[in-house]
Amino acid sequence: MSSRKKVLLKVIILGDSGVGKTSLMNQFVNKKFSNQYKATIGADFLTKEVIVDDRIVTMQIWDTAGQERFQSLGVAFYRGADCCVLVFDVTAPNTFKSLESWRDEFLIQASPRDPDNFPFVILGNKVDLDNRAVSAKRAQQWCQSKNDIPYFETSAKEAVNVELAFQTIARNALAQETEAELYNEFPDQIKLNANDNNRNRDGDNCAC
Amino acid sequence: MASTSKDVPTSPSGHDNTDDDLEPGASYDSILNPTDSFEEFATEMNTSLERSRDLTKKSSTISEIQSEIGECSKELKETKSSDNLQNKDEAISASTSNSNLDENGEDTDNEDDYLKSPELVNKEKHVFILSSAGKPIYSRYGNEDKLAGVCGVIQALVSVVEEQNRDILRSIITKDCKAVFLVKGPLILVAVSKSNESETQLVLQLTYAFNQIVSVLTLTQLNRIFEQRRNYDLRRLLSGAERLIDNLLIFMEKDPAFLLGAVRCLPLPEKVRENITNAIISTCHKIRDLVFAILIAGNQLITLVRMKKYTLHPSDIHLLFNLVRSSESFKTAESWTPICLPKFDATGFLHGHVSYISEDCQACLLLLTVQRDAFYPLSQAKHTISDKLRRSNCLTAINDALNRSKDLPTTNPLKHIGIPEIRHFMYKCKSTAQLFTSDPICLDRLQDYRQRHKEGGDVVKKKVEKLSDIDYVRNYREFCSKMHCACSPAKLIFRSNSLDTVLAWITNGFELYVTFDPLMEKDQAIRAVDRLLRWIKNEEKRIFIMNAPTF
User: Which residues form a coiled coil (chain B) (predicted)?
Assistant: First the structure.
């Protein structure tokens, strides 16, 4: 195991406020659910180790606040993310409509190298509730139109599909990790003339 | 009890008949760049500033901020930091656990538990290194994977100040703890310390840690990697190098060389050092592209021969010391290794032939070249040098100095000087960036310290029976930061209390820190210092490298 490379994935969770981002994360990390709603302020950070195809992967999960007043924090948080989880509430159509702008915003702010193939996952949460308003079909259609983003219907409350969804997230992010070594080319040789290493810098510490 | 007097009008030398330009060790020619630890700090702060300047148009001028970061404006800074934090309170909850559940009184989150584990609690100084994406790269203690949450918080704190307040987060100071932040290129470095080190000293240590990483990768590679992939997990490239950072952090805490930005030389008779240098020059002068030949032993410099025009910065030498000390493999085989010396040239590698001079002598020879396929000629040169040194008895002389043979005056300088009131001193010659202390650190003790550190690094409040070099140096830190304070640097500090008497003195030529018995009179101390300086002057050719040989 010692020789196995450690992997750490930065996972960003986005979506309108109240769709259950924090609850999903809690279900995944702590196996707990609370009915009480408390708005996330800024962001919460959680880590969880998962095993994907025999590799131990640490997921560093950035649970962001959905409320608009925190949106300006985006740039800082999205930087260098390995994947992005977009969450909506199947009982609230407007949260589904927001997905488009969440996705766009993320791509603009994070500016990943290969935006078309950046790993997203869509979670339709709260499927345990009766007053469903966004059909699975509609959600799937949208996902297909966006380069086949994987779609999961989840319930943070009843732990439906949560584990599976996060496993998929980790696997898809890992797949992006191309083995193309960045470090194969040997850096340029030092050119001595280029470097005028003059010791007589200004300052009062000269011996004279 | 403690009296501090700054800028005493009559300098000690005026008191006695010592001439004013007595600067033991001073030399017009130096192999090392003269240094001032504050100068370094200022440079660091400038570079972080440049980065922020790109982000903002309303940034204040560099000089304004430079004066702001000085020790004396601490108060101002503290309030500033807390202002930032208040803003943040509204904007961001920097929690690593999930507050929603915790507040409901259910059990705490795993990471929260981990943060309270003995691995992490009560350490004197933590150092964290992360990417600007918030991915952990290095933690001095504990498992950095499990600290991914903390790293997220650090990244958030840094970027909120940067992007919302258009400012730089420098430090957060609490009653018993300082957190110091340094953003360098694509990395964020943080020290969280309960020690008596100043903010400046901590920033310097973070810079060293950064330079250690650059030394392994080069700055070009480091930047390129993160330009191409901001989500890169740098641990993949640094595996094996954590040990170098671990050792460097210990080294910095105990060796005054870092505090003063100077290099310690192995005391040797002038003639012996000359023979060693000549052996190297005569062997290597025909080897093209050889930039530096450096012989070191026990974190001390024996000699350095250089290509004309080029000198080394002490911090590059410190990295070489650290590399050699941290690599057991050099002892068993000749090595050929790429080494980047960040001050010399951060963009590329030098190629080093590294080997111990012989089995019976713990001196290590580094031959640094720009030629990447010069192993065999350099290996040949090394054997020739080694033979020459053996024949001229230089190896014996090196061993005597390393084993601190009782016959040498430099082995126990205090006894030799004969001023019983002096307990300890450390002296830096500024023009040559070299250092001498009364109690050179021997290898065994270094090892000892490292072992203690491995299991610990905890904050200890022990009563020490016999103080060692390390304890004195710890004590000098506060004096040192007063002497180098940006807004009103002191030239002379005399402090006497029931524990000891300390005199710190800085001139154009040198820096001197002396610990005396408690309750010394000022006059008496000054007379002792004059005698001490004369002794150093007398021995300067033995304890310092007074010339700057070239190939």
Answer: none
> Considering only the top CATH level, what class is B71-254?
alpha beta
Contact A45, B148 (CB under 8 A): yes
Residues of B in contact with A204 (CB under 8 A): 508
Taking CA atoms, B229 is separated from B131, B189, B226, B242, B266, in Å, by 11, 19, 5, 22, 45
Q: Which residues contact A79 (CB under 8 A, 6 or more apart)?
A: A110, B132, B133, B134, B159, B230
Class in CATH terms, B263-402: alpha beta
**pLDDT tens digit sequence for B267-286:** 999 999 999 999 999 999 88
In a domain, A197, yes or no: no
CB B165 within 8 A of CB B87: yes
Range in A7-16, A185-194, B335-344 with the lowest mean pLDDT: A185-194
- Whether A44 sits inside 8 A of B95 (CB atoms) is yes
Question: Token digits for B144?
Answer: 């950095």
Mean pLDDT of B14-20: 45
Is A121 an 8 Å CB contact of chain B? no
pLDDT at B397: 92
Total domains present in chain A: 1
Q: What are phi and psi of B16, to 5 degrees?
A: -100, -175
Residue of chain A minimizing CA distance to B145 = A58
- Chain A's closest residue to B36, CA to CA, is A205
- Overall average pLDDT of the B525-537 stretch: 93
Chain A, nearest residue to B348 by Cα: A190
Domain containing A76: what range? 7-183
CA distance A52 to chain B (A): 16
pLDDT value at residue A208: 41
Q: CATH: 2.60.40, 1.20.1260, 3.30.450, 1.10.10. Which one for B408-543?
A: 3.30.450
Q: Where are the domains of chain B?
A: 71-254, 263-402, 408-543
Q: Which residues contact B105 (CB under 8 A, 6 or more apart)?
A: none
Which residue of B86, B97, B99, B101 to mutate against A (max A Cβ within 10 Å)?
B101
The pair phi, psi for residue B504, each rounded to 5°, is -120, 130
